[in-house]
Specification:
Elements: H1 8-24, E1 26-32, E2 38-44, E3 51-55, E4 63-68, E5 73-83, E6 86-96, E7 112-117, H2 121-131, E8 136-141, H3 144-153, E9 158-161, H4 170-184, E10 191-195, H5 200-209, E11 213-216, H6 221-240
Helix pairs in contact: 3-4
């Protein structure tokens, strides 16, 4: 007798678990390649040790920064050998990203409510690791339409918006979020674009749609956190009249 087939909900849950496991065995390696040119590579860490399989085109950077999705660690790293689709990577220093920054418990502010929008699962995982350095309550949306629905149903202190997504893109999502604010008489929520597209015309188009800031991918953690603090503090200062 053949084993019973899994129920649809069980099958979907298993697929989500397997997908997350694949993401958590990957790393983003960003740095300098040949002749100092920018280079970015997704690595599969499941091969074990320092021997990593390169996913996608191009080659691993000669040197740079590697974000390990399994541990939340940020490594300064160098590539010591390459062979076909495999590379040997040596870590020179490590900084943890998954520990929140220390705060005074007696004066701890409420968690920052963040809506992060990106259609790529690896990008969402990177954002989650970076945002773990804040005291934050993070909600994720996978496209423009779901981000607008999430914004209608919740209250957020800041929105992180990708631009190029299937269906409703980030530009239209930003316009609709600003429309929701106008219709409901809500204060302006900071919207920070997080996108690989930082050409002047793209920045201007996003600003015209209603974006407040623009951070380029691959994400530099300290820069993104700095912009989030800056924009949310401006809103808080405006609300208190200071």
């Amino acid at each position: 007798m053949s084993p019973p087939k899994p129920l649809p909900d069980e099958d979907a849950a298993e697929q989500r678990r397997a997908s997350r496991e694949r993401v958590l065995h990957r790393a983003v390696f960003v740095g300098e390649g040949d002749q100092g040119s920018p280079s970015c590579m997704i690595l599969d860490l499941s091969t074990g040790g320092a021997r990593m399989q390169m996913l996608g085109g191009g080659s691993a950077p000669d040197r740079g920064t590697l974000l390990d999705a399994r541990t939340g660690a940020l490594h300064e790293a160098t590539t010591v050998w390459r062979s076909g689709c495999f590379a040997g990577v040596a870590f020179t220093s490590t900084v943890r990203l998954d520990q929140p920054e220390p705060v005074n418990a007696s004066a701890a502010p409420p968690p920052l409510r963040v809506l992060a929008v990106d259609d790529d699962e690896i990008n969402r995982c990177v954002l989650e690791r970076v945002l773990n350095r804040l005291t934050a309550d993070v909600s994720f949306a996978v496209d423009g339409r779901s981000s607008v629905e999430a914004f209608k149903q919740g209250r957020f202190d800041v929105v992180l918006m990708d631009l190029r997504m299937p269906g409703m893109d980030g530009y239209e999502a930003i316009r609709r979020i600003r429309g929701v604010e106008r219709e409901r008489g809500l204060p302006r929520t900071p919207i920070i674009v997080v996108s690989a597209h930082d050409e002047p015309e793209e920045v201007a188009r996003a600003a015209a749609a209603g974006a407040d800031d623009h951070v380029v991918k691959p994400v530099v953690a300290d820069l993104l956190l700095q912009r989030i603090r800056q924009r949310t503090r401006q809103v808080a200062a405006a609300g208190t009249g200071s």
